Inverse folding.
């Protein structure tokens, strides 16, 4: 990122313009990033993928060995400061590593629990002593980690946890409770555990497997991810040293939710890697499978599928790298607003200062992280489903990997907060920021409403692709503004409208990110083709979702007026989508995988 660029804020892309030169794209990865990606890819293909059958037989010793091996290669600590055994690179490095791991879903789940859910809370919230004690062992892979938040009665409602912590006479903590669905639970050496001090103050603790009273239950019988350990973690008068309180008493929510921001961001990277692997499988199979005297790669129906798998993956990739650039830019600039990070420590130098700046940046772009989590999991679901369909009957049997990918992908819509929760979070966070004056969303909505009521109110001036993107952003603002004006403080109860608004915002972000990327690369060729296709289809969805939302929010003359405003704000560009998908498909077959 250029040092002269204005520091962006989370969600401000909705109300301000972004120049193509200002965004980060995969094409702008440095040589160091590319070398790191090659290392991760060679490890995933050469060591992890061949081990998957044995991992699926619950060989957790092999899981730990692979975690240790990834530590040796520096993959666990790509964005961890060197002071704690990491490589000290940026979030872009973490993304390329996560993407490489995504082609082996079971291990990527174990890997993600280590890098995102165990390292990050200690790095960002631990004391100096805690960091020095635990991070080198976890970053090197000597110790495996796990994150214990969920309980049987508190999945999405994390703060409803019933696990309790009480302080003993010697100052230590006594933990009681049972945590559910814990990735790496069966073999982790250290757990990040959330419990309520005195049954009231939600707090976090670093708990070692070796501590008295810590045990794990039986492995869960899961739909997918058979090669990752998932167990309950049982705390029966577990004795935890006083120094192993993570952060302050009662501040566990800040830890949990900020760690989830990073988990959502990293999950999108792993989903991206999974989609690219599935596209390559589809292309390979379609190139060799013969029906009616020719390979099925020649059939329009198959080419349509490959083209659509490619376009959705491109949109996800563009959103992810754009957000990565925003996060790294803010970290480099010194945290939110360039004036320090969480707790005012962001301006500090050294490893601690970097961790605080990273925390502030991840919190700043929580909206984008939620959008990425939704898009990543749903694009992956679509792609692996189409992969099964392209394989036909062979996609439904164990002899081909397609059925395994299909089962493995399903949980992504539940991981890191369900997609429904994230859909509610997106407009909720934007509205809260607007109400606090941190995002000029209300002013933009009021101006837009005034313009639409004016005699010479501006609308979508034509049916160009850039006009359509601008129109989608305006529709996002209009729907959010009207909903807030109509429902006021009760808006959080209107979940259907909020989820529609979230989908509109997500399509606007995907469309703009794709178009900016294509424009930055010259606005011609394959990038422009896929961007135009993405914008066209997103505009159709935005129009449909906006109509549904408006019909729920208002009635009578107000509804008619808003429907007329929608027609003025958004016009779908004319794009030959059949030809566009054929072009993308041809490029995928030529490249024998994802075309970009």
């Amino acid at each position: 990122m250029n040092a002269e660029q204005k520091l962006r804020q989370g969600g401000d892309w909705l109300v301000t313009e972004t120049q193509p030169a200002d965004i980060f794209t995969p094409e702008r990865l440095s040589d160091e990033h590319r070398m790191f990606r090659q290392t991760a890819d060679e490890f995933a293909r050469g060591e992890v993928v061949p081990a998957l059958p044995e991992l699926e037989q619950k060989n957790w010793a092999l899981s730990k060995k692979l975690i240790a091996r990834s530590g040796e290669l520096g993959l666990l600590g790509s964005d961890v400061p060197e002071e704690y055994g990491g490589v000290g690179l940026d979030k872009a490095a973490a993304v390329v590593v996560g993407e490489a791991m995504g082609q082996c879903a079971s291990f990527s789940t174990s890997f993600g629990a280590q890098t995102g859910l165990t390292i990050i809370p200690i790095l960002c919230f631990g004391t100096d002593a805690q960091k020095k004690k635990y991070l080198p062992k976890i970053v090197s892979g000597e110790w495996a980690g796990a994150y214990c938040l969920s309980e049987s009665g508190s999945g999405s409602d994390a703060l409803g946890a019933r696990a309790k912590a009480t302080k003993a006479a010697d100052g230590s903590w006594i933990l009681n409770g049972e945590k559910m669905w814990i990735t790496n639970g069966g073999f982790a050496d250290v757990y990040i555990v959330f419990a309520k001090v005195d049954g009231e103050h939600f707090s976090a603790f670093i708990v070692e497997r070796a501590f008295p009273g810590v045990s794990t239950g039986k492995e869960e019988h899961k739909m997918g991810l058979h090669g990752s350990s998932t167990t309950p973690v049982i705390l029966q008068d577990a004795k935890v040293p006083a120094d192993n309180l993570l952060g302050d008493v009662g501040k566990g929510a800040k830890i949990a939710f900020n760690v989830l921001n990073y988990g959502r961001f990293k999950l999108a990277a792993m989903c991206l890697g999974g989609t690219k692997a599935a596209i390559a499988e589809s292309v390979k199979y379609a190139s060799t499978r013969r029906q009616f005297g020719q390979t099925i790669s020649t059939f329009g129906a198959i080419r349509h599928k490959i083209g659509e798998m490619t376009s959705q993956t491109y949109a996800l990739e563009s959103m992810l790298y754009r957000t990565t650039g925003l996060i790294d830019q803010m970290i480099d600039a010194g945290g939110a607003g360039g004036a320090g990070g969480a707790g005012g420590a962001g301006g500090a130098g050294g490893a601690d200062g970097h961790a605080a700046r990273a925390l502030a940046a991840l919190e700043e772009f929580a909206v984008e992280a939620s959008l990425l989590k939704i898009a990543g999991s749903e694009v992956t679901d679509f792609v692996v489903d189409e992969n099964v369909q392209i394989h036909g009957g062979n996609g439904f049997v164990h002899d081909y990997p397609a059925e395994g990918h299909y089962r493995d992908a399903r949980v992504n819509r539940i991981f890191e907060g369900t997609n429904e929760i994230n859909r509610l979070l997106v407009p909720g966070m934007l509205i809260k920021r607007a109400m606090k004056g941190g995002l000029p969303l209300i002013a933009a909505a009021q101006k837009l409403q005034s313009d639409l009521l004016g005699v010479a109110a501006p609308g979508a001036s034509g049916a160009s692709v850039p006009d359509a993107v601008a129109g989608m952003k305006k529709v996002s603002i209009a729907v959010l503004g009207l909903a807030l004006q109509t429902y006021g403080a009760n808006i959080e109860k209107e979940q259907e409208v909020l989820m529609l608004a979230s989908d509109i915002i997500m399509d606007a972000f995907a469309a703009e990110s794709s178009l900016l990327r294509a424009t930055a690369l010259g606005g011609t060729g394959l990038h422009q083709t896929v961007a135009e296709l993405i914008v066209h289809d997103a505009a159709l969805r935005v129009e449909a979702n906006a109509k549904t939302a408006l019909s729920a929010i208002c009635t009578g003359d107000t509804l008619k007026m808003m429907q007329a405003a929608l027609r003025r704000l958004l016009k779908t560009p004319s794009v030959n989508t059949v030809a566009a998908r054929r072009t993308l498909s041809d490029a995928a077959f030529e490249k024998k995988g994802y075309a970009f």
